[in-house]
Amino acid sequence: MLKPARRSTSPQSPPAELCLESAAVSLIGPANDANPMAQVRSKLLGSIVFHANVQWTRITLQLTGVTKLNIAAPGQHDDNGQPSHITTTTNICEVEKELIPTGESAINFGLHLPHNLPPSIETKHASVVYTLIATLTGGPYKKHKIQKNVLVKRHYLPNSSVMIPTASLAKVQGWFEYNIETPRACAIEAGEVVLAARWSVEKERMDVRTVDFQLEEIESYRYRTRDAVHKLPPIIRRFPASVYPPPTFSQDINETHLIRAPIPPALRGRHYSNYVEITHRCRITFHFGSPDARMPYVEPLVVEIPIIITDFPIGEDTATGIGSGDDGVQVDLDLPEYTPQYESAVQVSVGP
Arrestin-like N-terminal domain: from which residue to which, for each copy (predicted)? Predict the structure, then answer.
């Protein structure tokens, strides 16, 4: 007697696989048409590998981007007294491309991306997510879909050889004069931010005892209605400060002090999208005192200077096609971020 054949319970392998060449797609410089790197269109490179003997007749690639916001609305409550929430979802990207199967075991593709896309992010209240969907069609009844998340990153420094401009802040406040020079941007890979400070104390028996230097991460949210753009109170995250004790008898304005603050691993790079923005600033605190502790207490002086903290593209020069040294492309750090195509039409719903 013949026994009935048992059906295999093992999962079947997919007929095709979607592979990406790089872990992330890199965009260089601010999202602005005046950015020189806006003319260099980044590509999403990958391939589709076929595992089954299926005669595919058509392959469609579609990259979609969605940004979401879900945050408590300040000062607004529902009928039960619970805080209301601002909830909105916006499509920010839709790029399509058709591929023609050649009968080979794999087919490569390159998808050009708009230069002003916001980078991927996932915070407590907002997100920017990109998804690549490949639709394979083989005749009227055979269809297969594959999808994969795509990581988009924006870098404000193209490579480690670029010349970074500096910003200088000089002020005289009563008997204290100071001059602080900071880099306009700093790479996370550097591990620290270094500033140069000079000061002079024009007060008898008073000098700078210590200088605290810490980094701040500012997380800001905003949403747009038909009437205006509304900004919510920022969330400020302060990292541990480094303490610099000046050498004795070093209160002359011509003496330069190099003060350093480490970049902690938990710090996130600069981010800009239509709902959330992450920026950074240097917080420098001067503490005053007298050698004999006989002078009255003087309040510390706090100075805050903005800085762009970013990371380099994967592989630096080789991944971006940007030269280094004298041939490197300079990024204009003064350009404002500009994303009108999805900020102009945002639907916002406020509810519990």
Answer: 96-150
Average pLDDT over residues 234-246: 95
pTM for this prediction? 0.82
Confidence of residue 319 (pLDDT cuts 50, 70, 90): very low
User: Using one digit for the tens of pLDDT, what is the confidence trace for 276-316?
Assistant: 999 999 999 999 988 766 677 889 999 999 999 999 987 75
Say how far apart CA 166 and CA 336 lie, in whole Å: 18
Could you tell me the domains of the chain? 16-157 (2.60.40.640), 166-311 (2.60.40.640)
